[in-house]
Specification:
By secondary structure, this protein is of the alpha/beta class. The protein folds into two domains: 263 residues, Aspartate Aminotransferase, domain 2, CATH 3.40.640; 45 residues, no CATH class. The protein contains 13 helices and 16 strands. The structure holds pyridoxal-5'-phosphate. It holds the Pfam family Aminotran_3.
């Protein structure tokens, strides 16, 4: 990008979580292939972020591109009210097949946050159908469920960007987040706060909403599967529906197709997004149990009241179908477990680094928690110069690379992290 273009960008375009007066530097990407992003100056950098957990098979994938081209020749879009189409039907069929038996009814939307709004609206209507005005949700602190209002209202109330809007948000219940990490011993005390709230307020709680196993934006923590098992028992006991937000973790990232499989339990509502189109188009789904769908449908209102304009977009559904076909070849399992092994080899030794508090690895997720907050501008410049794209936040340097990354490319990512840790000027 020439200077004029970059200045135009700075003056006129909002970027995620950014300022219009003091924007962080932006890099112009002109194309992408495999694990590489190509910058406007011709430099190629390895994407360690999979475009925020989504581009799991890498960029410009021939099978995904072919599916898009095939669909575009038929139609790019058609309204979903009163109309259906083969790509949506095929995708719903695949999703129902891939998910546990009780998850049976698919609602398509355009983004993860909206999939969460939909799940929350479903439970509001579910309780109304049962003659109860329940509206309070129970979740963990340090969660993240998106940037729209209901999603913000169940995201961490204190430490998140959302505290700015707190006075506008519905009030929900927040239990202490679990401390026992995925690989640690389970500590029964982890659920004391959750159990106390659910027991005291069981007749008011409309639903429990959680990110299973991985708390993402809230701190990149991996908690113990036993925690989910016990929560499922509590939810069943008090007849409170359970929503799982697998928008980040779905489609293999943690080593299981869905993170809740680590705990061998199933939710009543499942939200999927991000990797569902393997990083090509925006799409999300909210899949509910037959019981929830039927209860809503048997109510006086009788309908579920949501319907985005681009609902079930054929291009997005077509490419999601192709993504799932690739996943069903099961190469992802080998790819993710290879990445996990190498992340352990390359990153765990950093535990001894004086700048490091913790190193966490699960599936194709590698997290280095630093002593101090990262200076994003200077560290990003260093990473780009080193040929990698890594975007830390707060004191967390993490990577979620495309599953197709090879060991040489992955070691370039991990080496860059190690080198960055050695420079105290990259930390505030
Ligand atoms: C990204 C994310 C969302 C929000 O999805 P968008 O598509 O950005 O709206 C919700 N929950 C989790 C766990 C996420 O990682």
């Amino acid at each position: 990008m020439n200077q004029f273009d970059i200045n135009f960008d700075y003056q006129h375009i909002w970027h995620p979580y950014s300022s219009m007066i003091n924007p962080l530097p932006c890099y112009s990407v002109v194309s992408a292939k495999g694990v590489y992003l190509k910058l406007n100056n011709g430099k190629k950098i390895i994407d360690g972020m999979s475009s925020w957990w989504s581009a799991i098979h890498g960029y410009n994938h021939p099978i995904l591109n072919k599916a898009l081209k095939k669909q575009i020749k038929k139609m790019s879009h058609v309204m979903f009210g009163g109309i259906t189409h083969p790509s949506a039907t095929a995708l719903a069929r695949k999703l129902i097949y891939l998910t546990p038996k009780n998850l049976d009814c698919v609602f398509f939307s355009d983004s993860g946050s909206v999939a969460i709004e939909v799940a929350i609206k479903m439970l509001i209507q579910y309780w109304q159908a049962l003659g109860q005005k329940r509206k309070i949700f129970l979740t963990f602190r340090h969660g993240y469920h998106g940037d729209t209002f209901a999603a913000m209202s169940v995201s961490d109330p204190k430490n998140s960007i959302h505290k700015i809007y707190n006075h506008f948000l519905p009030k929900n219940f927040f239990a202490d987040s679990p401390i026992s990490s995925f690989h640690d011993k389970w500590n029964e005390n982890d659920l004391l706060s959750f159990q106390k709230i659910i027991k005291t307020h069981s007749s008011k709680i409309a639903g429990v909403i959680l990110e299973p196993i991985v708390q993402g934006v809230g701190g990149m923590k991996f908690y113990h599967p036993k925690c989910l098992k016990k929560i499922k028992i509590l939810c069943d006991y008090y007849s409170i529906p359970l929503i799982f937000d697998e928008i980040a973790t779905g489609f293999g990232r943690t080593g299981k197709l869905f993170a809740f499989e680590h705990a061998n339990i199933v939710p009543d509502i499942l939200c999927l997004g991000k990797a569902i189109t393997a990083g090509t188009l925006t799409l999300a789904v909210t899949i509910s149990s037959r019981n929830i769908a039927d209860t809503i449908s048997n109510s006086k209102v009788g309908c579920f009241m949501h319907g985005p304009t681009y609902m079930g977009n054929p291009l997005a559904c077509a490419v999601a179908n192709a993504n799932i076909k690739i996943l069903q070849k099961n190469e992802w399992k080998i790819q993710v477990s290879k990445i996990e092994k190498q992340l352990c080899q390359d990153l765990l030794p950093l535990l001894n680094h004086k700048n490091v508090v913790d190193v966490r690895i699960l599936g194709a997720i590698g997290v280095v928690e630093c002593m101090r907050i990262v200076n994003i501008e200077s560290i990003q410049k260093f990473f780009v110069k080193n040929g990698v794209w890594i975007r830390p936040f707060k004191q967390l340097i993490y990577i979620v690379p495309p599953y197709i990354i090879n060991s040489k490319e992955l070691s370039i990512l991990t080496k860059s992290i190690k080198e960055a840790l050695d420079n105290p000027l990259f930390f505030i």
